[in-house]
Amino acid sequence: MRIPSLRLALLSGLLVLLPPLGAQSPTLSLREALGRATSDAYSNRVAGSLHEAARARAAAAGRGVLPSVRGELGAIRTDDPLGAFGFLLRQRAVTPAAFDPAGLNRPAARTDVGTAVIGEIPLLNLDAWSGRRAALRAAEAEGARADWTAATVQLEVVQGYLGAVLARERAAVLAAAVAAAHAHLRQAESALRNGVVTPSDVLLAQVRLGDLETQQRSADLEAWVARRRLALLLGAPGDSAFALPGILPDVPDDGLVADLPTIERRGDVQAASLDAAAATAAATSRGAALLPRVNAFGRYEWHDPTAPLGGRPMWTVGVMASWSPFSGGAELAARREARASADAARTGREALEAGARLEAAAAERALAVARLAVASTTRGAAQAVEAHRIVARKYEGGLATVAELLDAQATALGADLAASRARHDLLLALATLRHVRGADLMPLAAQLDAAMSTPE
Question: What is the pTM of this model?
Answer without folding.
Answer: 0.80
